[in-house]
Write a structure and sequence with these properties.
Elements: H1 2-14, H2 23-31, H3 33-51, H4 62-78, H5 88-107, H6 115-139, H7 141-147
Helix pairs in contact: 1-2, 2-3, 5-6
Length: about 160
């Protein structure tokens, strides 16, 4: 029994905080009082340990202004400019792709091309849409990560 508990706790500790646990681990934790107690204690310890490091900083704090001015000065001295996110190219290419698909759909009839060729072109268009979406998301990943918050109430650290 102790070996099973050790294995379950090893699996539990290998997972990240918001990652789903395997069903076998969940069932064991529900059934085993020792493991359930240990998980509760670790959760409370993590909550208390991280709580002392978090501190709310008001927006009118003068220290915050000094830090942000130093960060801005470092950005300017490094010579790198922040590249603005432009969606113009993505919108234009998406519209062109839609027009091409509509043109193909309107001007291709089963009498002008074989049905296998039409299916091949539709599959090619589907692949183009998938590649387009993947390229869009990967090239703008930092934008999406900054806009999506996984915390209920984000807190600044000082």
């Amino acid at each position: 029994m102790k070996n099973t508990c050790d294995d379950v706790m090893e699996k539990f500790l290998m997972k990240d905080k918001n990652e789903l646990l395997p069903l076998s681990v969940i069932v064991h934790i529900i059934r085993c009082k020792e493991c359930r107690t240990m998980v509760r204690r670790m959760t409370l310890a993590e909550k208390h340990a991280s709580g002392s490091l978090m501190k709310v900083v008001s927006h009118d704090n003068p220290t915050l202004d000094v830090v942000m001015q130093k960060v801005s000065a470092l950005e300017l001295s490094s010579g790198r400019k922040a590249k603005p996110v432009s969606l113009g190219g993505w919108i234009v290419s998406g519209i062109l792709m839609i027009i091409a698909m509509m043109f193909f759909g309107f001007y291709t009839t089963p009498s002008t091309a074989s049905s296998m060729l039409i299916i091949a072109f539709y599959l090619l268009f589907a692949l183009a849409i998938v590649v387009y979406c993947i390229a869009f998301v990967t090239s703008n990943l930092d934008f999406f990560v900054k806009k999506i918050s996984f915390r209920k109430n984000p807190v600044s650290a000082a």
